[in-house]
Amino acid sequence: MRKSEFSGATVEYPDMIAFAFNPIIINVYGKSFDWVKVIIEDVQSGVSHEESREMYGESVFFDISSYIQGFFDTVDSNKVDYSQKGASDSRLGRKLDISIDVPDDSFGFSVFVMWGAMRVGERFNGSRKLTWFKNFPFSVGLYSGASGSVEVTVDGEPTDPIMLTGQGLWNLIPQDINAVSMLVFNLPGSDSFVSVFDHTFDLTFKGLTNIATRIECAIDNSDCGVYLRWVNRHGMYCYWLFLPGDETRQVVNDGEFIRNNMQSYSFIDGYHGGTGRKQRKSENDTLLVCAPLVDGDTYDFLFELATSPVVDMFSGYQDGVAQWKGVNVSVENYVKTSASLQDFVCTIILPELNLQSL
Fold first, then answer.
1. Which residues contact 247 (CB under 8 A, 6 or more apart)?
2. Backbone angles phi, psi at 187, to 5 degrees
3. What spatial distance separates the first Cα and last Cα of the chain, rounded to whole Å?
4. Handedness of CA 305, 146, 185, 190 (dihedral sign)
5. Is 70 helix (H, G, I), strand (E, B) or coil?
6. Residue 173: CA atoms inside 13 Å, Cβ hemisphere, count?
7. Alpha carbons 215 and 185: distance in angstroms, whole number
8. Which of 296, 301, 285, 283 is nearest to 338 (CA)?
9. What is the mean pLDDT of the chain?
10. How far apart are CA 128 and CA 262, in angstroms?
């Protein structure tokens, strides 16, 4: 966390990046004020929230993560434009201007907040290996602390770089890139800005200068299966093509019978005239999917599918635009064994179908 002095008090506040579902802490202490107010403004939308608190002695504490989570409520993941070449804003990272106000004085700072939550022992935006299923929509998530260029290597041969216009959480779209076996994106390290953060966990994260981010995308030409997309805990889109398994269909009754005892007991065509009926049936479908014989790193990558609240299933193209259907993943136990290779299996919950209602 960063620390500064203003108006005779000490303020501790988040570092240059934060995650919306981790605690985002502001501490003010060392001097007594009648009140302390925090104003959080989303630079992109102009929407702001504020909260005022009285001090307890000479200290006051704020956790503004709940306010920041609200800025991501309108994120529409279906608007990823896979026809766009180069880099596009993923809208899963937002720059916030934060003001700490006391009577007759104010202190301000900025922080870049991303969807998700870091875990102890993780490195954010580090080098990694992915699989590019070439017959399906695909993007690569990348954070950059400033403007720059991403080096692109196709099957061992360098090609035109991708330009980044500033700090942001970017989608790299491999449109018109004809790789056969391997596609590599490399964001060089810099001593003037930070794009990689290590596993130090103290509510904020230690930036590493001169550390490059190298992302290797192995090519897979499979053309059938269940293709899923989800947002991981680092605010990046992930993709995988699963083998479909058994489908379970459950029909559910949802209705009630209403009797009007004020009418006579006359039967017409087998129905009691004094009874009204209301009945509804719905269908709940689940689908078992499997990624066979994956290594430990890939298993960890796929496990984040089960922890994501944003999961979409690819439904084909309409007028050249990728169509996605929101699904969910069943809550269950996932056992990672000590074997070098194992199957990853999960159950997809499809949207409920309203069959008939009388």
1. 285, 286, 287, 288
2. -100, 110
3. 60
4. negative
5. helix
6. 15
7. 5
8. 296
9. 86
10. 73
The dihedral sign for the CA sequence 289, 293, 294, 300: positive
Over its C-alpha atoms, the chain yields an Rg (Å, rounded) of 26
Q: With bands split at pLDDT 50, 70 and 90, how would you rate the model's confidence at 58?
A: very high
**The two structure tokens encoding residue 296:** 């430990």
For residue 109, pLDDT beyond 70: yes
pLDDT of 155 above 90: yes
Residue 242 has a pLDDT of 96
Centre a 10 Å sphere on the Cβ of residue 78 and count the other Cβ atoms it contains: 12
Assigned token pair, 313: 């299933």
- DSSP calls for 246-311: EEEEEEEE--EEEE-TTS---EETTEETTEEEE-EEEEEEEEEEEEEEE-HHHHHHHHHHHH-S-E
Chain centroid to CA 44? 18
Cβ neighbourhood burial of 201 (10 Å; 0-12, 13-18, 19+): middle
Which residues have CB under 8 Å from 28's CB, separation 6+?
9, 10, 11, 36, 55, 59, 60, 100, 102
Which token pair is 227? 């293709």
- Looking at residue 160, its amino acid is D
Closest-CA residue to 78 (of 333, 278, 310): 310
29 has pLDDT over 90 = yes
User: What is the identity of the amino acid at 1?
Assistant: M
